[in-house]
Amino acid sequence: MPPKQGATLFLLVHFVVKASVNRIIRSFSVTEDFEPGGHPFHFAQMDFDTRTALENIWKQLDFAYRPNFDPLAAVFSLYKCAKLPGASGWENYVAIFQCSGAKPLRQDPRQPWILCHLSKDASTGHIMLKHQFMIARDYDLGALPASYDWLDGDWRKAVKDQLARVNNFEEDASKHPWALKKMYRTVHNKAGSSSKQILEGISLIVEWQGCEPVSIEAVAANPHSLAPLQATPSLQLESSAALPPYSL
Q1: Cα–Cα distance between 118 and 127 in angstroms, integer?
Q2: What is the 8-class DSSP label of residue 6?
Q3: pLDDT in tens, 41-66
Q4: Where exactly are the structural domains of the chain?
Q5: 22 FRET partner, CA 20 to 30 A, in 85, 95, 107, 175?
Q6: What is the 3-state secondary structure (H, E, C) of the chain?
Q7: CA–CA separation, 91 vs 146, rounded Å?
Q8: What does pTM read for this prediction?
Q9: What one-character DSSP code corresponds to residue 212?
């Protein structure tokens, strides 16, 4: 069984930049080895506006705007950044922040993962949670790997909504212990075409991030609230009665 104590260890933040304007699109908890796709983007490659956007995101995560902010109380630090394909003049980026608010525990190789399979309804076009159950770590889905940069906006939002749901729509960005580890895709050929494929579903592999209890008072007093993590239960469930809420 996973340890009862858990927390966010790595937080993915998708943000966009256009000149001096920047905004956060969405964010959710990921594992250390999660690969968002895109192209690695380093500080030396960034222009002033992108660096400023990253700085503003960190300040929002760590509530660092207040004048008496103590750097020793900081919880989030930039781990890596990637550039995604974008449109309409907006530059799309993914930043992954490491959360040092809790010490991670060594993972038990017998600890299961959650498999969440999302699929788009053919008649309504809504993306719904179709299946959900625990799997062993060496279980082979027999599906193609998927990455965040490969998905369009509707699928990205559905992934974010499902991660929010398994974490009980917790608004504190540092308290999302169920983290996205991998994604897989199922596709089928478009009618009349042997080369064009249509995305049929996305399978999420979600892992519990166990940690030691947090004991630093400064960390406990820091709200770490991030607007995109507020409760937005918009993901439609095919059978909510069969899917009880999580108790963490």
Answers
A1: 6
A2: B
A3: 999 999 999 999 999 999 898 887 77
A4: 10-242
A5: 175
A6: CCCCCECCCEEEEEEEEECCEEEEEEEEEECCCCCCCCEECCHHHCCHHHHHHHHHHHHHHCCCCCCCCCHHHCCEEEEEEEEECCCCCCEEEEEEEEECCCCECCCCCCCCEEEEEEEECCCCCCEEEEEEEEECCCCCCCCEEECHHHCCHHHHHHHHHHHHHHCCCCCECCCCCEEEEEEEEEEEECCCCCCCEEEEEEEEEEEECEECCCCCHHHHHCCCECHHHCCCCCCEECCHHHCCCCCC
A7: 22
A8: 0.82
A9: P
Tens of pLDDT, residue by residue over 171-215, are: 888 899 999 999 999 887 666 665 667 788 999 999 999 887 654
Q: Which residue is listed with tokens 């809504």?
A: 126
Which pLDDT tens digit goes with each residue over 64-76? 777 788 888 788 9
Spatial distance between the Cα atoms of 14 and 72, rounded to a whole number of angstroms: 26
